[in-house]
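dude i think i finally got it to work??
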Amino acid sequence: MKSQVVVDERTDKERNVELEYPLNAPNADGSVVEVAEGVLWLRMPLPMALDHINLYLLEDNDGWYIVDTGLDTKETRHLWEHVTQTHCKGKPIKGVICTHFHYDHSNLSSWLTERFNVPLFMTHGEFYTLKANSSGLANLGNEHQLAFYQRSGVPQETIENIFEACRRDPFIKHSPPSFNRLRSGDILTINSRQWSIIIGEGHSPEHACLYCEEDKLLIAGDQLLPHISSNILINDMEPNGQQLKYWLRSLKNLQCLRADILVLPAHGPIFTEIHARAQQLIEHHLDTLNTLRDYATSRDSFTAFEATNHLFDRELSPINRMMALGETLAHINWLMGKGYLIANTDLVSGINIYKHSDAQNKNRIKL
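look at this
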């Protein structure tokens, strides 16, 4: 889970020996690294264990496009002023592209588009999910949301702690007023380089990746990270969703791209071996599915909260508890959809009770 990151002192190669890392990362201080002609890599700081986000600048003949924004803090605004004045060769900013709605990727989109008087580019699903999240802040903790956590067996104190942590989050309120829509298969021609829009699902509803096949470059956002797995979350808006199903399908789609491309992720180092990394993530979720299925067969019944405690057996902050529950439910829903689990609602408590289905054998789950 992306939210579960802790400080890791190992080298990139020690963290994932199957990948290659051809470039040294820039510091999160306004420095840049040229990835290819007209493609700059920079980092902005994040005030959390995952302490940076990778952002990219794409040079056109008459300006630059920003890909993802960082958080709306004074420090990040100052760094963007420095970057645009120092590294853009006197050319203006032409547009802002957000791969998805999560606030480390979109939180400064309004300020950047207003500061440089340029359009915002996002997919429909990401723009409107961002709007829904920001507008729903005033109604946080409503009866529908409360019922979602109660059905999962979450104790009332934990529910209240989750709601309070969300209310204190200073970055949820942001929502840009308008956008230019990106669709799957769209081509963005930037300085004769053609970037095809590839859509991923699971981590967010309509995540946009930018793929230049000719130059073997993929700006992957959170769809493919070298060292951690992005959070696959079920929440109250789509409690029966199949986010894991679509996440796994998106990883399979990335394995259809050419094998020798350079992956430009949102966190961690730039890397190669895209097919191997996608397979690692598929295997990670298969391991979790098998762990959860084994847990189900070892007991008469369980709740989603109990399963979360089994999969994430450690102390969690309220926000990480929320994300861990969402990830557990994503795996439960996948197992339900495949017939490995059945569910009933307790008539007294209203809690969803899950049981192993005898209709499936106990062989390891495979795709």
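The chain is about 35% helix and 20% strand.
im so relieved honestly
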